[in-house]
Amino acid sequence: MTTSVPSGLxxxxxxxxxxxTTDLATPAVALAVGAHPDDVEFGCGATxxxxxxxxxxxCHLVLTDGSKGTWEPDRDLAELVAxxxxxxxxxxxxxxxxxxxxxGFADGELSAGIEERRVVARWIRHFRPDVVLGHDPWRRYRxxxxxxxxxxxxxxxxxxxxxxxxxxxxxxxxxxxxxxxLFEPDEVNHVENVEKFANTKIDALLEHRSQLTSTMGIAExxxxxxxxxxxxxxxxxxxxxxHGAGAGFAAGEAFHRIDAL
Length: 261
Fold this sequence. Notes:
By secondary structure, this protein is of the alpha/beta class.
């Protein structure tokens, strides 16, 4: 975990590399924020499943409508949006959560602007999570603009959600979560042990059936869900092994953890 030598001043302390932390105490409420339907399942699905199994209330906030999630030029996009919302609800249930909010911002056009920040801050104040999870906006060489914007929306909204003087018109009391976990991290300093929850993560990902080819890279000719699962399972398990290895876990999900919120 990256720490700093405290000066007592609000800015300016130099980060000092520290040990990687593992396994937060199970939060009462976790809010996972994804740019698109399926991003949360990829980024932290096994961690959410572990916490849900231990009694955590797991909440999803999906920022965009997922309307560009197809390679079919003639696809009915309104139908695709409805399909992806249904898939996301099923995936959330597979992880053990039922609270799913769709912000409906245009896929591929997400902006980390003031109005978007107001929306995310509102939901942080509404759900009052102990832990927020989201994209790491500082990951180098990130190509997708929505992932960058989603990461900055989370960090900016956390600052707004904690202070009375940001967006008082929301009408909800300020809230300051205890931890922020950024998935797809540029710098890993926290790992969750998810050895018993790999299957649940895969189950949740397979609920996003409209994305099997375009996002998950499963060959178009694979039409049997069992074949699709075998195709995806090997890659997911390899990634979980790689994430867990640095912490001595057989399977892990890696994050950048920030506690100074």
